[in-house]
Amino acid sequence: MRTPVEIFDDACRTWGFNQATRFFPIPDALSGLFEGRRTLAQSQIAILSGLFRAGHKINIYVDFVDSGELNAVADVRELWGLVGLLRGTVLLPLDMFSRMLAHPKVLPDIGDPSKESMHAQHTEGLVPDFDQLTASRRSAGQSPEPLSPVDPLRSRFASLAAEIAYDFLVLHELSHIMYGHCEYLQAKNGIPFILEVAHRSPTDAQDNRLRQAIEFHADKCSAHIGLSSMLSFSNEVPSAFAPIYSTPEQRLFLWCFAISGVFRLWGLRIDPSELDAEGYPPTALRFDMAMRVAHGMLRDKHPKLAAGFKTICHDAQDELDSAVVQIGGNRLAREDVIHLNDARTDSHVRAVFRYANRTLVPALEKYSYLQFPKVEQQ
Ligand SMILES: [Zn+2]
User: Fold this and answer.
1) Does this model's pTM top 0.85?
2) Domain segments of the chain: what residues?
């Protein structure tokens, strides 16, 4: 019987990230960071495994793929659920949030921003691939090393935001495996694995509806589980983190800031004339749905916090938008998101959810390892 590492090594070659292989050995300078991220993924697996349905169980192996993209993959092979996280899922959000907090004008109420100063990296903008980013630093004669905020609290804020971003991706991929998305797609369409972000592959509209319903479902699970576990964290918050992580409002702000950052790295966009043309929902719609799920979860479980959700969420997105500008990126344009309010978008979302409720959810009953549905379709 093959080991999960052998299975992962083989699977890597078929995932299509320019032939990238498993990220191994991990250089000494990065091993602490990546081992910490591996532990974080293991703890999410342990929590979700506690929710297995009687008689249903799957082992999951998580590892990293040697590519600088912000991307991930879920696959099921030889009775193993495989989560492949590209090196960029760890390094890109951390680099972006660190650059932001290392700027004196970003989030001036966090820690002591006067310790920070402007740097050449504050003109780089948002680059969607970590390897491109470091290559351009080298070619400009700069150090490729990410900038770190000087103020310790600002540095902790950046690290926490990067962890939340990573956690969102891990939970999304785990949902694809544990709710049976991968095996259902394998059985139905012969689709062997699910990439988090893929280039457009022409398929028919019905197929796209199925894929979009699956992506919405994974995002819903991820947003729901990620935010609710952050809010229910009841251990004493270490004093070093107290000013940014003590109250539910602070945690919600951090979560909204981090998730907004992930979607800005992907680029927010929506074209109402192309809604059915892709197997992935437009990023602006995914972001909007993630925030709606968060709001819905708060209304159920934290009604007091739900009352302030819109303000906190709006503040976090505003701060994130300013931070993007301070590191050389573009402010979010009205055209990037205005079509969220388009009647075509509304009817598309309704059609996808109708499909999810009538077709996908009943079909997944057979494949899901977890009680289903854990997250109500809205
Ligand atoms: Zn996905």
Assistant:
1) yes
2) 4-91+148-364
